[in-house]
Design a protein that fits this description.
Keywords: Oxidoreductase. GO terms for molecular function: oxidoreductase activity. It comes from Spirosoma montaniterrae. By secondary structure, the protein is an alpha/beta fold. The protein has a single domain, classed as NAD(P)-binding Rossmann-like Domain (Rossmann fold, 3-Layer(aba) Sandwich). The protein has ten helices and seven strands. Strands 3-2-1-4-5-6-7 form a seven-stranded parallel β-sheet, with helices on both faces. Strand 1, helix 1 and strand 2 form a beta-alpha-beta unit. The termini are far apart.
Amino acid sequence: MTKFVLITGASTGIGRTTAMRMAKRGYTVFAGVRNERDAQDLRNENIATLSPILLDVSKQTDIERTVSVLQQACSTAGLMALINNAGINYVAPFELADEQKVRYLMEVNFFGMMNLTRALVPLLQTYAQTSQKTAKVVNVGSIGSKIGLPWEFSYHASKFAVLGMSQALRFELDALGIRVCCVMPGGIRTPFFAKSGTETQQTKQTLIGPNAAYYERNMSKMWDAALQFERFATPPETVAQAIQRLVEKRNPPLRKVIGIDAKLINFLVWARWENVLKSQFVSG
């Protein structure tokens, strides 16, 4: 039986690495990207089982078109796995945040994931019924699903939501033969990290109001601390390997923490030592 997989956010980083890894290992992979240039970059890899598909998860028309393509490609076999990886960040103090940017982040990181997953439940269930195996939904959260750090409240809000949705769907969809997991990596050696640094610098230049100096000082401190953690950043290949194993495992866990930094933060949260982290990131 052909093993069909859809991965969102496959232009760079975790998504691209996972798409290529799984395509090279016998899966028929549909890789969601937001523009034709990124689609062509994937075609240039010349992997027969890797098919880029234009998919902006914030657009319902893109979701509907993607579902239609998948229905035609794998209607009888069903969809073995959906890997929800698309996500963006927004760095800003809570007081000064641009509401439209916060809403767009939630649209991409949460509502897009919700709408795409809901639309693909029938195809996932078809796979479970025809193969007598569990279909998988792997949601890419973050160690930021466990703790909220300053200046990225909207990102953490979305990742808390991803973990909460994953747990709820774990209960709801299990009886339909669909197993839901949430991977929770820490820092990853991808353009996402550098882009967050650029956004931090841009935000610092627009700070206004009586608390501007406080925000500027501590956003700089946060970024300095983040750079210290960068040396512990996990290669995207490690996350891709973990995702593949979750897809192949009969009964994968709900949560999968990935990376040295993520495991350290996870322990500090479990031990209720959040103040250790607080002291590194923010002061009056």
